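sry for the spam today, last one i promise. struct tokens for design, 164 residues
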């Protein structure tokens, strides 16, 4: 991403107004954090089901159907709130190592979920109600939990690096 574009974005009147607002920026940031909690909560709940730690009496597909809409809603809200938050601090965030790490981890979490659904989950009908979930599904679940935990930590570290 070009520094010139980031500076242009940063200097947009709406980005400046958001950055300088005593109310709007904290409100949008709060909604952003809550949306991440929704995504992480629903994804980790599904992962824990895949690991056989919760909701053992429910089929994997039933748990997925119940949680996936909330995860997508949380993702949409995260995106809608994250873009203006980024614009308001574009130049500073671009050079923030914790922000860069968070974006990388979000991409990896998306790839992990995409690979799970494109490979292992395609055969869910064979193990949907099984007490023993296949090893690849459990590996995807552990990877997902680790990635979302790291996303949350790196998100918090953005403020730490920003304060320096």
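last one done:
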């Amino acid at each position: 991403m070009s520094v010139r574009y980031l500076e242009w974005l940063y200097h947009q009147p709406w980005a400046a107004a958001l950055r300088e607002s005593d109310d709007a920026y904290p409100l949008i940031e709060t909604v952003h954090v809550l949306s991440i909690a929704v995504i992480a909560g629903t994804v980790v709940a599904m992962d824990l089901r895949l690991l056989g730690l919760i909701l053992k009496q429910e089929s994997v597909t039933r748990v997925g159907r119940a949680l996936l809409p909330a995860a997508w809603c949380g993702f949409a809200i995260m995106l809608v709130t994250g873009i203006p938050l980024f614009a308001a601090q574009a130049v500073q965030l671009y050079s923030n190592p914790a922000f860069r790490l968070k974006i990388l981890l979000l991409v990896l979490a998306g790839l992990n979920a995409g690979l799970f659904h494109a490979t292992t989950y395609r055969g869910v009908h064979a193990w949907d109600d099984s007490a023993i979930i296949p090893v690849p599904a459990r590996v995807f679940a552990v990877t997902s939990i680790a990635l979302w935990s790291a996303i949350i930590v790196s998100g918090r570290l953005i403020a730490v690096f920003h304060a320096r």
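The chain has one domain: 3-163. ok im logging off now
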